[in-house]
Amino acid sequence: MSRLPHHHRPVSPRSRGLAALAVLALAASTGPGTTPSAGAATGPAALTVSPATTAGPAAAPAARRAGTGNLIRNGSAEKTKGEPDDFSRVAIKGWSVKKSEQFTAARYAPEAPDPQAYGLRLSKNSPGPAGRGKNHFTGAYHTSSADTGRATQRIDLSRHRSLIRKGAQFDLRGWLGGYAGNEDRMQVTLTWLDRKGKKVGKFARLAPVTLADRDILTPGEPGDEVTLLAERTASGTVPKRARKAKVVLKALRGDSGVRAAYADRLSLKLQP
Ligand SMILES: [Ca+2]
Ligand SMILES: [Ca+2]
Looking at the record, which segments are called Disordered (predicted)? Predict the structure, then answer.
């Protein structure tokens, strides 16, 4: 197995057209708008992949007014200090990352993925969200002994307490992915805390987009998995005593550290 995530894996010379077809086939086979409930987001039901679609549902303007905007600060990794490149650790505004955790932000590669180079980098034109900006979250390459890379954000919900007391619904979503034949993957967990910081209610999870999920060209035959981001969603009821939300992005180890686990465009909204 490769030591570095950017190690080139030969990909059979398939046309870009075939790749696009496979991506569309995946989007069609998973069905529209499937939304797992809180704590049960384990299946791939919410996986949607498209090279050029926008994230997020077309919420009615009235519903949008009554609910919150995106409560996750810097959910798209655009606000970073330092030069996000392949191997640097940078400070990501809004997120706390312990020194021992291998987590950072990186720039999307500028070049379009062509059939020969598919999977070399997560690029601006890899399958994934529109409006992805310049940067994405990723596990950091530091040492090959890293098991996880974690970033945490605590969100104060106290100004939304009247909404929560009436039984608010949450909508958590994000684009998760990985690199070529590497098993590295990212997951997102959402935990609710009461006024004193004690856990309340059920947690919610955006399940990782796995190597198998990215095997869209020839499903079941390994070796040609696609580097991509796919959208995951979870929704449910906010516990009435919740006054804080804790969001944890966790890069999970594949073959050689956590460098090839990716995420972007995270969002948490509350609605009546
Ligand atoms: Ca971004
Ligand atoms: Ca395959």
Answer: 52-84
